[in-house]
Amino acid sequence: MPLKMRIGAGVYEAGGGPGPVAGSRSAMDPISTTPTRPSDYAALSAGYGALLGALVVAARDRGGDPVRHAELPALGLATFSLTKLVAKEKVDAWVREPFLEELADGERRPKGTGMRYAVGELLSCSRCVGTWSAMGLVGLRLLRPREARVVIPVLATAGVNDWLQTGFTALCGRANLNQRAAGAPAPEAGDHDRAQRFSSAR
Length: 202
Fold this sequence. Notes:
- By secondary structure, the protein is mainly alpha-helical.
- 61% of the residues lie in helices and 7% in strands.
- The chain has a domain at 67-180.
- The longest helix has 39 residues, at 145-183.
- It is flat, with a radius of gyration of 24 Å.
- The two termini are 25 Å apart.
- It holds the Pfam family DUF1360.
């Protein structure tokens, strides 16, 4: 059975593209089918743009390189960790609960109407949350650099640990499959031919 993983609002099969799964949304719902108005999304965009503009002004006042290129890998890992924490982890379900209904089968439905629904859609999209997380961490780096030197490495290290744990789990799963296969009895001579004849007879 192919491994399925949920990324944002879509569900993907390992080794393939997006595939529809019952109860999941594989594409963005048009505004005509949601209880929202264009102004709700405009307000979110305006808020993001205003915060980004404030960061640009703050960076300009400081002069030089506000964020060095060498810091980008750590910022990227920290953004990944913060995004996963806010958008996926159970420990932060209290943040999503006012805006999202999370069902046992993994489906997540935005609650309410208008802005509340739009925020629910945003929180169900890890890429969208990642955009806001990135701005928050860069803002912390610009405005509170001393605190950022603690927060960003902690989140980045957590991100590395997450990837290592995922790889370790995958390797253990593969080893278990290989061990089961090695312990299975070897097929007897002629089994393959008999199976082919049976299949052709059908």
